[in-house]
Amino acid sequence: MKKSILIATAILFLLIIFTVVKIYPFISAMSKFEVVEYDKNLTLVFGGGGNTGILTGEKEVLVIDSKIMGGKSKLFELVKQKAGNKPIILVNTHLHADHSQGNSLYKGNTIIAGAYTKEQWIAENGEEGMPTEWVKDSKEIQVGDETVIIRNKGQAHTYNDTVVFLKKRKILFFGDLLMIGMHPFLKKKDGSSITLYLKKQNETMDEFQPEKIVPGHGRTGDAELVKEFQEYFTDTKSVAEGKSEPDKIEEKYKHWIPFLSMSGTRETINYWREELKK
Prior knowledge:
With 278 residues, the protein is α/β, with parallel strands linked by helices. It has helices at residues 2-31, 69-83, 97-100, 118-125, 194-208, 224-240, 246-252, 265-276; strands spanning 34-37, 42-46, 52-56, 61-64, 88-91, 110-114, 133-135, 138-143, 146-152, 162-166, 171-179, 212-217.
């Protein structure tokens, strides 16, 4: 009896260690909260969920993505400091919680997202913090001296992925259409399509030709970021087609952060396999 209890305890301990090792990189990334003052009116906030932009105008403040867990409250406090009594316009690049869970803090303000159905949004996030405006194609707003273009790119990461382009600054907020150093979370229910990922990335780059890119997760940069992410998809597709060894590709991307146990090199390879059958 004692021996079986000891074995069960050891197994439980190993499972706990395994779980901690698996989730630590993700939790660490979500816990990070780094504020960078890009210029006097634009602030970038990394971590705490998806990357965020805060653009302060004379009459209003624009926020791109509202974060999750502790990050959402920290972000909201920062936004309130910058906004004062000015109205806030919040844009969600897509419906996943790490970009939209903080929406509930922005009651009474405008919340913009792509053209999801209310049922899709509620299934993912519940009713609280639901967008007040759904953009089917494109919307342009003026924030101070900056022209902000909000473009719904349609299906790729989800069914309605939205990008935000600051025309004067030539900065593109790509949402999770671009992720650097983190494996993409691919979910059929939400409309994930790797083929469309690549198509929409190329279309967006051709349309806006940004000088600076802010991905949904990871570091900022230029067009080389898109090449880096597309190389990941090329490598994983090669394994799915039987042209490369999975161990080699896993080693290449071992430092990329998984989304808990729901994303990773093997998960992307398997998603490719299913997509290539169609």
